Amino acid sequence: MTALHLACKGGHLDSVTRLVQAGTALDVKDNNGKTVLHHSATGGHVDCTVLLMQAKATNDICDENQKTPLLCAAEEGHAEVCKELIDRGAAVNTVDEELNSPLIIACKNQHQSVVDLLVKRGAKVDAEDVRGHNAAFYAREIDDQAILSSLESAPPVATWDISKSLT
Q1: What CATH superfamily is the domain 1-78?
Q2: What is the pTM of this model?
Q3: Torsion sign (Cα): 89, 95, 101, 105
Q4: Out of 12, 14, 66, 84, which could bridge 7 as a Cys pair, Cβ 3.0 to 4.6 Å?
């Protein structure tokens, strides 16, 4: 773990700024495969996350469990970090090694604000994990009516019928 990893984990913006300006590598992984952006996102450090993204840290890089910084932020309920990552190109429907999407993870952890953001940004409500369960399954399992309502109000995802384009 580098000094930049530690600064990002603790949300120490001044230290992060100095280390980034000094040219510290941004995509170096620690022993768990996490980059500085993973640590910043997990900790909910919006300013550090924005700074790292402006410095061109890789947004959709995966750790050893195939988790991206967006998945980490969604798991911890950091809606503002999720918003910043998505605004800067993070894949809203990325999945980890168990096919958990940010939406499924947010539902499992009852993070309403993250669910609302992800639905608004086009998350696939019907995406399933390796067990064949979608976000609504987990919301029903914990009886979270507010999250279920958000999922039910999701706009339909546009699909493109390739067979029609071939004629």
Answers
A1: Ankyrin repeat-containing domain (1.25.40.20)
A2: 0.89
A3: negative
A4: 12
